[in-house]
Amino acid sequence: MRVLLVEGDGSAARGTSCTLRSVGYMIDHAVTGHEGVEMLRRYDYDLALLEMVLPDIDGYEVLRAARAARLDTPIVALSSLNGAQAKVRAFSAGADDYITRPYDTPELAARIQAIVRRSKGYSQPVLQAGPVRLSLDSREITVKGILVHLTGKEYMILELLMLRRGTVLSKFAFLDHLYGGMDEPEMKIIDVFICKLRKKLQQAGAKNVITTVWGQGYMLRDDSDGDTPLPIAMMKPPRSSDERSSLSVV
């Protein structure tokens, strides 16, 4: 899960980032409100955490700018301002939740997960695609009850696929999700991750769960049976007549 933290206080930002990374989130940090709005425009975040007191503009302006730009990223106000009026203003400006400091780490993680699930159309902490089950709370992956051990990057890829089930995701989307534009490797690394992930799922008994959409990217099958034939549009394109004529016949 990829989260944008908009926080002007360096010490507070480090503390919150460490807290969220400890439960498996990828964190990007914006120091100012203007930077936060720009990053929300440029990147696809699962959620944003927004301090209401910032060095340039306040959090309410960030909320209004994001919603005026029709950005639907869930935004949680994370602030030391705990008065009722501050909360009402935040919700009126477009906040999805309001958490006051000091916060309890398990509660913060649970509320983030609940908001992200709702935003993706899920109400339960467990996602399922055919025999594959993913627990957002424990980050455990099982196939027909068998625990599958994934690396951090493999888990992030599968989580993204399951949250966007039925949607074709480009390799750019995976790179953005995994690295956030920072120290990105070559795009072919996504093929390597997908290959390893598929192998682990297949060994556990989940075949053909991740589909290659030629020329576009990858998607998680939206049917419960991995053996269901693929739609023609998702199959590898047929060879051209020139290519066919160049093949030798045995």
From TrEMBL:
Of the GO CC terms on this record, one is:
cytosol
Record-linked SUPFAM superfamilies: CheY-like
Q: Which residues bind DNA?
A: 124-222
Task: Please give the InterPro entries that the UniProt record associates with this protein.
Answer: CheY-like_superfamily, OmpR/PhoB-type_DNA-bd, Sig_transdc_resp-reg_receiver, WalR-like, WH-like_DNA-bd_sf
Sorted keywords for this record are: DNA-binding, Phosphoprotein, Transcription, Transcription regulation, Two-component regulatory system
**Does Acyltransferase count among this protein's keywords?**
no
Domain of life here?
A: Bacteria
Gene Ontology molecular function, alphabetical: phosphorelay response regulator activity; transcription cis-regulatory region binding
Q: Name one GO biological process term.
A: regulation of DNA-templated transcription
The UniProt record lists the Response regulatory domain at 2-116
Metal-binding found in the keyword field: no
Q: Which SMART domains match?
A: REC (SM00448), Trans_reg_C (SM00862)
Q: Where is this region: Disordered?
A: 228-250
| Domain OmpR/PhoB-type: start-end pairs | 124-222
Ranges of compositional bias, category Basic and acidic residues: 239-250
Q: Identify this protein by name.
A: Response regulator transcription factor
Q: What is the lineage of its organism?
A: Bacteria, Pseudomonadati, Pseudomonadota, Alphaproteobacteria, Acetobacterales
